[in-house]
């Protein structure tokens, strides 16, 4: 018996049995992983089946319909802003009590002039109430001034506005404001509009809780607001969004700061942290950094921490300091196990994060034009309905990994966004067999909208009339920024021969013209429109012109200082708009999961 077990056939049979068992186990693991991925996708789809849009500052974000949203800590020009439900009778009583309370306090000299101003308010938006100025402070003394001594006197006064409209009480408050800034409050109150339904306004401005401020609100007024979100069906999950404009950008991003903090942890503590993503990521045309981690707490609860951050700018309210977070496993007194798996948590995070976009409004000059409701940079995940026809950039692929059909694909509105089939480099054995290996990522493929159009771009069939540059500054370069062209609104018109008012993409409005949408530099003369000539119009000669040119009308569809590649291009198509798909930059989306468990 023992001699048979040592025989060559027996050894080969045993090896085959072991290999079969290993293959069966591997296939089972692959099937289990696919089942888990499908469960994650189903869970995310269920949680996000119905969404609602929230206006936060100058941005919109989509959250599950069940979400409990709380907007707090709103501040504009240093004024703290509070909004609450209140009837007109309750407001009048509160206003009277507040006036009496302030009038009863002694002033800084011990007299009875603590309440110095009680100005009536009645605005065009329907707000009524009063602006109160009280509690003056005076600090005076002497201080050194070179070789001498000089006296100084600093005065401040507390200013507040109590106003009411459409069932809302709104308070604005600033303690000890400089006397030179007292008229800021009346101007700010006149810009305030009650919005009890919380709808996205159709005019430019800054949204706070159930109200908004009409523009102009400038960067030096330092607007800021925070949003907190809870999901009743998943109480361990919470979101927060912080927006702050006009401050100095942070020196180091979240990735650098986290690396520095991790370096101070012990080896045991670092082993409890697994990074799922850590890379730059662009959302809604904002360049930011993303950090996604799975953490095993001391009580062995597996939780998730997601963070996306934009450093901000000091002079642009549309590029604020922005921090968006999502946490799972939050308990009352201690962390609890996350109610979502790693894949489901990532899917929910991506779904909500990718919905952040700047709020678009209809300006007076563009009220008759189509509104671009799906901005460039919009992201959609595999399985979702395509929100806009156009060229979409796949977030997967790169580093010698191809994508079946190309990394940039044309997808029609309403079609399902595909899960990318990835094509790794072929080995020598693959080339010998003539096969191409392929695989699908375990995570949902994310696509980024790069160019919007109803149909694919078709090159013009013949030469088009060029624009005429009048000066070096009107040539194709980056000197004329979009910020310098704010006076030219999207949707405005110009005619052939006129100086182009803004660098950008202009659409020819003449029916049957071949021009479609073309890029023109600011200051260049707009060209005539080009039309084909039907055969036989000029006789049967072979030398007859194939096209004619005549005056036309152009409409601005997108402001951009220079097209990709710094080369003006033309295109055709009925809704041929915006930027052509020429650059192949990556989507800014970290698709490789590092350290996942």
Short description:
With 597 residues, this protein is α+β, with helices and mostly antiparallel strands.
Give short descriptive properties of this protein.
Protein Transport Mog1p, Chain A, 17% helix, 4 domains, single chain, 597 residues, globular, disordered C terminus, alpha+beta, 4-stranded antiparallel β-sheet, 12-stranded antiparallel β-sheet
Structure, explained:
This protein has 597 residues and is of the alpha+beta class. The protein has 4 domains: 54-69 and 225-358, Mog1/PsbP, alpha/beta/alpha sandwich (Protein Transport Mog1p, Chain A), CATH 3.40.1000; 78-216, no CATH class; 376-451, no CATH class; 472-566, no CATH class. The chain has helices spanning 2-5, 8-47, 88-104, 184-191, 254-263, 267-271, 342-353, 428-433; strands at 51-56, 59-64, 68-76, 79-85, 115-122, 128-145, 148-165, 168-178, 192-194, 205-208, 211-214, 224-231, 234-244, 273-283, 286-296, 302-310, 321-328, 357-358, 379-381, 390-394, 402-403, 408-411, 421-423, 439-440, 446-452, 493-495, 504-508, 517-520, 529-532, 547-550, 553-559. A 12-stranded antiparallel beta sheet has the order 5-6-7-8-4-3-12-13-17-16-15-14, sandwiched between helices. A hairpin with a 5-residue loop joins strand 15 and strand 16. Helix 2 runs parallel beside helix 7. The radius of gyration is 31 Å and the shape is globular. The chain starts with a helix and ends in a 38-residue tail after the last strand. Mean pLDDT is 81; it is low at 363-372, 472-480 and 565-597.
């Amino acid at each position: 018996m023992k001699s048979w077990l040592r025989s060559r056939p027996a050894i080969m049979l045993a090896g085959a049995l072991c290999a079969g068992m290993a293959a069966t186990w591997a296939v089972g693991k692959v099937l289990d992983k696919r089942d888990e991925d499908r469960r994650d996708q189903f869970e995310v789809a269920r949680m996000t089946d119905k969404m609602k849009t929230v206006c936060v500052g100058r941005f919109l974000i989509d959250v599950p319909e069940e979400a409990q949203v709380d907007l707090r800590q709103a501040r504009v020009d240093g004024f703290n802003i509070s909004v609450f439900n209140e009837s007109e009778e309750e407001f009048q009583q509160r206003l009277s009590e507040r006036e009496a309370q302030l009038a009863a306090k002694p002033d800084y000299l011990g007299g009875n002039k603590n309440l110095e101003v009680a100005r009536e308010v009645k605005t065009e938006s329907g707000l009524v109430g009063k602006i109160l100025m009280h509690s003056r402070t005076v600090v005076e003394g002497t201080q050194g001034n070179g070789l001498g001594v000089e006296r100084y006197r600093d005065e401040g006064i507390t200013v507040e506005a109590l106003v009411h409209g459409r069932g809302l009480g709104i308070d604005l408050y600033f303690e000890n404001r400089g006397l030179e800034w007292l008229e800021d409050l009346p101007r700010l109150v006149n810009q305030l509009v009650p919005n009890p339904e919380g709808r996205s306004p159709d005019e430019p401005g800054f949204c706070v809780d159930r109200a908004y401020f009409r523009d102009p609100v400038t960067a030096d007024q330092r607007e800021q607001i925070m949003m907190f979100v809870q999901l009743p069906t998943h109480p361990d999950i919470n979101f927060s969004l912080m927006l702050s404009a006009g401050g100095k950008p942070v020196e180091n991003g979240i990735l650098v700061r986290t690396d520095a903090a991790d370096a101070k942890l012990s080896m045991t503590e670092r082993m409890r942290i697994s990074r799922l993503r850590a890379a730059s990521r662009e959302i809604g045309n904002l360049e930011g950094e993303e950090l996604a981690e799975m953490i095993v707490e001391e009580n062995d609860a597996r939780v998730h921490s997601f963070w996306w951050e934009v450093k901000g700018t000091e002079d642009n309210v549309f590029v604020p300091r922005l921090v968006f977070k999502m946490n799972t496993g939050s308990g009352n007194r201690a962390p609890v196990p996350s109610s979502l798996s790693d894949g489901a948590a990532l899917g929910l995070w991506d779904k909500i994060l990718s919905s952040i976009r700047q709020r678009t409004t209809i300006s007076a000059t563009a009220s008759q034009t189509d509104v671009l409701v799906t901005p460039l940079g919009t992201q959609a995940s595999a399985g979702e309905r395509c929100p806009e026809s156009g060229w979409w950039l796949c977030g997967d692929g790169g580093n010698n990994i191809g994508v079946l059909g190309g990394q940039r694909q044309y997808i029609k509105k309403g079609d399902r966004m595909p899960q990318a089939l990835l094509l790794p480099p072929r080995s020598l054995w693959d080339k010998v067999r003539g096969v191409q290996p392929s695989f699908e990522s375990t995570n949902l493929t994310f696509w980024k909208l790069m160019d919007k159009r109803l149909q694919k771009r078709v090159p013009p069939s013949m030469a088009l009339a060029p624009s005429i540059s009048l000066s070096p500054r009107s040539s194709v370069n980056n000197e004329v920024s979009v910020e310098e062209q704010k006076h030219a609104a999207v949707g405005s018109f110009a005619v052939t021969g006129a100086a182009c008012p803004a660098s950008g993409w202009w659409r020819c409005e003449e029916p049957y013209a071949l021009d479609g949408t073309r890029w023109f530099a600011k200051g260049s003369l707009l060209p005539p429109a080009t039309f084909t000539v039907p055969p036989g119009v000029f006789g049967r000669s072979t030398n007859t012109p194939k096209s004619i040119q005549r005056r036309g009308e152009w409409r601005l569809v997108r402001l951009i200082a220079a097209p990709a590649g710094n080369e003006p291009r033309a295109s055709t198509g009925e809704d041929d708009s915006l930027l052509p798909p020429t650059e192949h930059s990556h989507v800014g989306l970290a698709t490789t999961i590092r350290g996942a468990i």
